[in-house]
Design brief:
The complex is a heterodimer of chains A (112) and B (119). Chain A has 112 residues and is an all-beta fold. Chain A contains no helices and 11 strands. With 119 residues, chain B is an all-beta fold. Classes of the chains: A mainly beta (112), B mainly beta (119).
Chain lengths: 112, 119
């Protein structure tokens, strides 16, 4: 049982490049989340999904896009990377809205 | 929108002593869920404890307990008999109820409190 798997773990991007952060969970969870964590700070919600085909914006969605075509996968797309997107990105999932969220190991992204 | 505030950026405690981390939140909802997560240097987010707002009894998990004051919108975490392995950043989190509303299913975190444990 892998839980929540994020790839890659580390990535360096040049300004203006694009990339997709992958997130997959094998727990049949319907809720999935993307957060970013800046150094020494809390987690800010980028996007979340309550089921396949349903996504909604969080606090800081600008510069990102998501899709949820399957229950298992919730990729996060960065278009035209900017230095302000340098952060650690966490994907999380939960079963329904009452249980705790399980987190991936995070992706450390640096934009130079 | 719900907000979660942790007013203590850093806290320290001596090994074997007790420490309390503060958390307040703002919401107009009557039913919700609260969580404390621990993030050690490994970056992994680990659930410490959870509390359902409809339950008056405070949650406990071994050395960890909460003081949930619904009217005051306060949710503090008490760590008893602190151990070196408790050193980490701790996050308070709020989850909106399951169905309906614009914040349906959203999970919101506070800014975090860094806990240092001195031997």
């Amino acid at each position: 049982n892998a839980g929540v798997t994020q790839t890659p773990k580390f990535r360096i991007l040049k300004i203006g490049q694009s990339m997709t952060l992958q997130c997959a969970q094998d727990m049949n969870h319907n809720y999935m989340y993307w957060y970013r964590q800046d150094p020494g700070m809390g987690l800010k919600l980028i996007y979340y999904s309550v089921g396949a085909g349903i996504t909604d914006k969080g606090e800081v969605p600008n510069g990102y896009n998501v899709s949820r075509s399957t229950t298992e996968d919730f990729p996060l797309r960065l278009e035209l990377a900017a230095p302000s997107q340098t952060s650690v990105y966490f994907c999380a999932s939960s079963y329904g809205g009452v249980t705790e969220a399980f987190f991936g190991q995070g992706t450390r992204l640096t934009v130079v | 929108a719900q907000t979660v505030t942790q007013s203590q950026p850093e806290m320290s405690v001596q090994e074997a002593e007790t420490v309390t981390l503060s958390c307040t939140y703002d919401t107009s909802e009557s039913d919700y869920y609260l969580f404390w997560y621990k993030q050690p240097p490994s970056r992994q987010m680990i659930l410490v404890i959870r509390q359902e707002a409809y339950k008056q009894q405070n949650a406990t998990e071994n050395r960890f307990s909460v003081n949930f004051q619904k009217a005051a919108k306060s949710f503090s975490l008490k760590i008893s008999d602190s151990q070196l392995g408790d050193a980490a950043m701790y996050f308070c989190a709020y989850r909106s109820p399951n169905a309906g509303g614009t914040s349906y299913g959203k999970l919101t975190f506070g800014q975090g409190t860094i806990l240092t444990v001195h031997p």
